[in-house]
Amino acid sequence: MNTPKNLTLNRGLNRTAMMLAIGGALAGASLASAGIDREILGVAITPSSPGELSFYDISLKLTVATTPSSAPTNASMLVALQRNGSTVPGGLATINVQLDGGSGFCGAGGCGPSCGGGYINGVFNTMLCLKDPPDCAGGCDCECRFPSITWEFPNQEFEPGDEIVVILIPAPGSAPEPTGDTNHKWTTIFDGIPHFWQRRVQSVEVVAASSGRPGLVDLVVSGDAIWHGIKKPSDLGFDVHCVDPTGNSIASGFVLGGVSPNGDGLACGGIGCGGLCGFWNGNQVDCFAFPNVNFLPCVCGGGWIIQFLDLDPNDLDGTKIVLKPAPGSLPELPGFPSDPTPVCPDTDLTGDCFVDGDDLGTLLGQWGPCAGCSADFNNDGVVDGDDLGQLLGDWS
Q1: How many helices (H) and strands (E) does the chain have?
Q2: Can you tell me the mean pLDDT for 77-85?
Q3: What is the Cα gyration radius of the chain?
Q4: Which residues make beta-bridge pairs with 199?
């Protein structure tokens, strides 16, 4: 996905209001070639610098969806950022979106295939048939849209209690919004806590193959997805890749990531943890502790686990676990990356991803009959020379 450059226009507040009014009027009077829906997928509010409590970067994730059309369509828009009813300085931008004729056809084969494309600020982007609503887990409808368009409003001053509004307005001469549509507007009362989402790896384990096949192992990866301030059903789905040192994926799997806030996207912003804050893939989740200097100590989130079966342990040398947001899901945020996580050998008994004297000491401490012990690498119930040889073979 190509992210357009931020061409934010600096305008006086009176001129801003005039442009928004004219844009809406002209768009409503135009004849659309297709049913166009400008949608806000998510809005993040993150500190402009570590520890900053007054200035924040606004990262807007939006898209344009279309119904089938044989004709090219102008789906351009104005993006406005408002604080307490007034557009902030530098808070008005234009995104030029031109859809190719023939876009919008998803067919009956389910979600996933491309359905046309168009130009976002002069750069071609492919449109995909993606599930609607985003948190749908089965029997989903599909809509043809761009996976995600990112727009940034950096270094904005906000205080707790401020009403923050982001709104997408059809540009003059472009196709109008559907009657009664509300997903082009996002509103929150800022609680002083960054609004964000993040996918994380919590643990990576190499274990004996559950199939019982000798010489092979399973790779068990677990983690969570966390968020604060998500205000609508959203998709945090992602692919999990085990990547070798050359960048090739030797194993991969998909984690479903349907997020449904429980009416209040700020449910974890109060005092103390605990209590229902939403649903993760249809399962109730509660606020939990998340110590961080930029946040109050609670966030909402849900866990995940994935297992790669019957791998050659020699293939895992130097590998890392990489999380890649699925097309159409909320993308990574600046400052909240899903950093690659090293896959440590099962002979690493201390969890530091090195096999050294500390691990040797642990093995020797378990020497002899020791069923279920961590140093019994071949699971024969005894820690002996076979296990020692495996540890020395992984020495680093």
Answers
A1: 3, 26
A2: 98
A3: 25
A4: 225
Residue 34 burial (C-beta neighbours within 10 Å; 0-12, 13-18, 19+):
buried
Beta bridge mates, 80 = 92, 167
CATH of domain 196-342: 2.60.40
For the cut 90, the answer to whether the pLDDT of residue 186 exceeds it is yes
Mind listing the pLDDT tens digit for each residue in 233-275?
Answer: 999 999 999 999 998 999 999 999 999 987 666 778 765 677 8
The answer to whether 345 and 355 are in contact (CB under 8 A) is yes
C-alpha distances in Å from residue 158, one per residue of 49, 53, 217, 244: 14, 9, 51, 44
Whether residue 23 has pLDDT greater than 60: no
| Residue-by-residue DSSP string for 202-268 | EEEEEEE-TT--TT-EEEEEEEEEEEES--S-EE--EEEEEE-TTS-EEEEEEE--EEEE-S-TTGG
In the chain, where the domains are located: 13-189, 196-342, 357-393
Report the relative pairing of strands 73-74 and 97-99 from DSSP bridges.
Answer: antiparallel
Q: What is the token pair recorded at 284?
A: 């109730």
Which pTM was predicted? 0.78
Q: Which tokens belong to 140?
A: 């989903």
What is the average pLDDT score of the chain?
A: 85
Please name every residue paired with 225 in a beta bridge, in sequence order, or none if there are none: 199, 302
E strand intervals along 84-216: 86-95, 97-99, 114-120, 123-132, 141-145, 149-157, 163-170, 185-189, 196-208
Using CA atoms, how far residue 5 sits from 91, 154, 157, in Å, is 15, 13, 22
Mean pLDDT of 342-363: 81
10 Å Cβ neighbour count for 375?
22
Note whether 261 and 232 are within 8 A (CB).
Answer: yes
DSSP state of 268: G
